[in-house]
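Allow me, if you will, to draw on your knowledge of protein folds for a short while. Thank you for your consideration; the sequence and its tokens are set out here:
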Amino acid sequence: MGTEQSRRKMLKTVITGTAVLGASVAMPALAMEKETTPDTAAPKLKGNVNHSACRWCYSSIELDALCAAGKQMGLKAIDLVGPSEWPTLKKYGLYSSMCNGAEINLVDGFNDPKFHPQLIENYSKMIPLVAAAGYKNLICFSGNRRGKDDETGLKNCVEGLKQLIPLAEKHNVVLVMELLNSKVNHKDYQCDHTAWGAELAKRLGSENFKLLYDIYHMQLDEGDVIRTIQTYHPYIAHYHTGGVPGRNEIDETQELYYPAIIKAILATGFKGYIAQEFIPLKEDKLASLRKAIIICDQ
């Protein structure tokens, strides 16, 4: 108690003693005290990871507020936003690390020819917009199997995507297919194993088609996360995080040890973005995001 009283007396003396010089002298002392408290201080990041966060996980927070807070935490980008939200990101100096808006949905994708006309029209319009805005990654999906075996799904995806690859190459845009689990969240989704997605990339044979490796999803469907990343990293353009089980905070409450996973990703030479895509359970969602950034800053 005595220490706290002494501290307050000292601050009062500083403020009183500098009043004649104007508020500009006194206020920095107060501002410094506030900014260096643990709850508000910007984390000291190592600079090895390009940190991002998925917009939808923080839908209860206005985008301006998310961008402002994220920028202070060390975010370089926001994931899964479309053209209408790009100006807000740019206002805060944040990148759109994974663009969306061309897909039909998660279940109607490139593995079914009946969706090709709509998908080709959508992506043909979106690819130039992504490039004009200065961005690179545009998400896409395989769609659900609906009885199709792996080989049929691969052939259909190749047939549809090969019609877009030349346009993507022209504009230096990468079509990035997300790996999703079919065990819990996305029943019947076809691109549910890394080997299947890598085979699709091999058949397309273009640097403008890659995979989005979602660590949460792939832990559920195949596990062996670090060795899988080491094996298939040439085909991976982007990473998403998430706690297992539950897809919540990536802290000590779940089974994945993210510091080791992030180190393994960096060891492959990866220079892209790693985006937080967990659903915060804690009331202070931004505090959970800040902690996740620190955990993944290796």
Summary: The radius of gyration is 23 Å. The longest strand covers residues 209-214. The chain has one domain: 51-296. The CA atoms of residues 3 and 9 lie 10 Å apart.
